[in-house]
Structures are given as structure tokens and as C-alpha cells.
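For consistency, the fold was encoded as C-alpha cells, as this record shows:
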Amino acid sequence: MAIEKVCGIETEYGIHSVGGDGNPITASSLLVNAYAAEVNRRIGWDFEDETPGNDARGFAREGAMPPMVETHLANNVLTNGARFYVDHAHPEYSTPECADAIEALIHDRAGEEVLRRSMTAVSSLMPDAPTIVVYKNNSDGKGNSYGCHENYLMDRTVPFADVVAGIVPHFVSRAIYCGAGKVGCETPALDRRAVHFQLTQRAEFFEEIVGLETTLKRPIVNTRDEPHADPKRFRRLHVIVGDANLAEVATFLKLGTTSLVLAMIEDGALPERDLGLADPVRAFQQVSTDVDLNRPLTLADGSTATALEIQWELFAAARRYAKEHGLAVLGDEAVGDLVIERWEGVLAGLESDPMSLVRQLDWVAKLHLIEAYRERHDCEWDDSRLAALDLQYHDLRPERSLFARLSMERLTDDDSVIRAITEPPKGTRAWFRGTCLAKWPDAVVTANWDSLVFDLGTDPLRRVPMMDPLKGTEEHTRALIDASATPSELLERLRS
């Protein structure tokens, strides 16, 4: 039986320093440190259990440890259970672990608000500092791409080869509703003269089907085997193939459909037809450049199917799965029902008229804006103003963002998003992490996903492991924390 699909999103934001020295690491550090000062919280990250070189195929890259540059950059754990830090040259926000796709969507939106508050904090605390602008996108237009990574809890007993075979067709074809849209292209993988608009920002940067890398020779399926949980029971599927979405429906479907397909893989409930692709990397790029959604992709058995047809087959299997197994595996039956409803509605809209989804999907909304501008100004696709419009769509400043001017459909509400800036999800171990940070900030030395380290005033430091993402919830630990006046009392109660 499939296990619950705890999920989360890590977003690397694009950054530009207006009038500064152009060093993105400096600008990113300013953002993260300014926010920490603003909220008066500086809880560092614990790298003790980081093993980025472990490969799901059964080996480890020799000497693979967290990069030294990463361990010395700004790094903070927030009271909502999230991590806000500098990842090489980008500010990165990792949501806390969430029990369902709606909760993860809310916390992804909270991350956007944290970045906006960070920009304001830099201006307020350091008025002489350069103006820092943040974009929620995936490439700088100069051949450099940065990621939006998803994470899903999986059963360790499922063979990784089965995961790869089952998920690749979904990763390639889901771009028709998960893509953030992009004017032109910027790598040799595509012909700049022929490609005017893409559904995704990331497809042209992928070169492998399976692999460990995330920045070079990017694979469709990443093999990093770093569960941040009990490694005998759990796997964390680290997904690097997606775009950073602003549209809430797109983010929800990205998380919800992928969670459901992974549950189907665990329960052996995929479509009877083998949807394996003959050349997944090429197919991914073909899907990205197929604005009309009608390009046939060659499958491994020699037959063909469009991305939309692949998605319809996955959806049909998902609907059968829902009837036979229920959807509690998605954290909540009501959320599961919404995944099924929205999935079907979006596929039907894409089939009949993609522009009917202009309020739901990023790539459709962006293409609609671009086409309207081209018509008004009679400009060609290589006009630099179109690339500028593309970038402005992703600008997080409300007064500058083109996305913010659109009447995009909401699945969240402002109150829930604002609460999620400081409050952790209630249904995962993030609740214990965030609540301890809020109640005893001076006693928590460091934190990471699967443990907290406390300083009780005596040697040694005390580590509290959290090896099950579904333990440490509000239901499990609120009474314990409420009854403890000090961390020492908490740890004593945990022991007993």
C-alpha cells in the first residue's frame, strides 16, 4: 500500500542587484540576513546529516559532502519550519514538509511573501545598499538555469528502476500544465530561429534521463538518495525537472498529480499501456516547443502519443485508482478529489482551447500577454521588449509584476498565506520543529529536516531525532510542548 505523499518545494529565486557590484552571492546574503534581522531569528542549519553524493542506484560519490561554500553562507531555519538560505548564487526558500498539495501550495506562496519582505527589509535596514530585485523564474536569458525542486515521500521498498520507468512519461508530459512559459530559447539544444515560445523554462537545460547532477547534465529523474528520514523505510524523490510557478492552479497540479502518479507506482496501478518514451530528453524538449499541443512523441514500442494523450491515459488510471484505493494517500480525501477534478478540467481545457485556461496556467497567461503586446506594437518574436515582458511577469515586486496585474484564479486565501509565514504545517514533523524554534529560540543551536540540536546549558549538546515525517505533528506533540516550561523538561518528557 502506498504511503502518504508528504511533499514540499525548494525554489531558487533569480536575483538582480541594481547599482551594486553585481555579485549575486553578496546580494543573496543581504536578503537572507536582512530577513533574519527583521524577524529577530538566527537559527542555523545543521549539515551533520547531509549526504548529497548518495545515489539511489546504489552507490555514493566519493567524498561528496555539502559544499564548503554552502556551509559558510547565510542559512536560517524559520518558525514555520522552512529553510531560507543562500544556495551558491541564489536566495533559496525550502518550504516545510507538508501533508498535502494544498498545504504545500500555501507554504510556497508564503515563501514568495518572505522574499518580498526580505527586499523591504534590505531597504529598511540598509538604506544605502543597492536595490535588490527578486524573480520567481528559472533562467537568466544568458544560458544559466536555476531550479525549482519538488520533494515527495516514497516507500523505500519500491525498486528505483520502477520509479524511473513510471514517472518519466509523467514528468515529460505534465509540462503542458506545469510550464511557466518562456520567450525564445537560450541553449544549443534548440534552434533560436525556429523556437519563438516554449511551455517550460527548464526543458532545454536537460541532457540525461537519470543521474545525480542538478546543475550540469541535468537528468529528468534525479537520483540523489538523501531521505532526510529513516533510510530503511523511506525514500525522498528529489525532483528537479519542474518550473517555478506563480499560478496557484499550476503549482497545485504539479504537486497533486505527481503525488498521485507516485502512489500509483507504489501500488502497481499505472496504465496497462507502456507509456515509456523512446527518447525522453528529446521528447521533453519537443513538448516544451509544442504550443499547439499536437506533436506526436515516439514511444519505446514504436507507437506515438502526444503529451496530452499521455496525460489522459495517466488520468484515466488515476481515476480508477481513486475508486479502488481511495485518495487518503494524498493526505486528505478532499484534496485528492480536488486533484482529480482539476486534472480532468485542465486536460479538457487544453484539448478544446488552451486559452480558456488563461486564469489557471502560467504559460497560457504569459502567451496571452505576449501575443496581445505583439499585436499592439506589431513586433517580431526576436524583439527585446518581449524578453523584458517575460522577465517582468516573474518580478516579485507587486508594483512591477505583470503576474500580479492578472486576475489569476486562487486556491488559497491571503489569511492562510500570511499565517504560513510564521506558523508551521500541523500535520508533519515541521510542526514540532517550528514550534520549538518559536518557543525556545535561544536553546536551539541548529536544526535540519530530521533533527533539532538543543543547548541545555550543560555538555553535551542534545540532538532530538525526527526520522518519521509524519511524527512530531501538532496532534502528537502539542500537549507535550505546552506542558514543558523549558527545553530540559521537553527532553525529559520525550525520554519518558
About this structure: The chain has 15 helices and 20 strands. The radius of gyration is 22 Å.
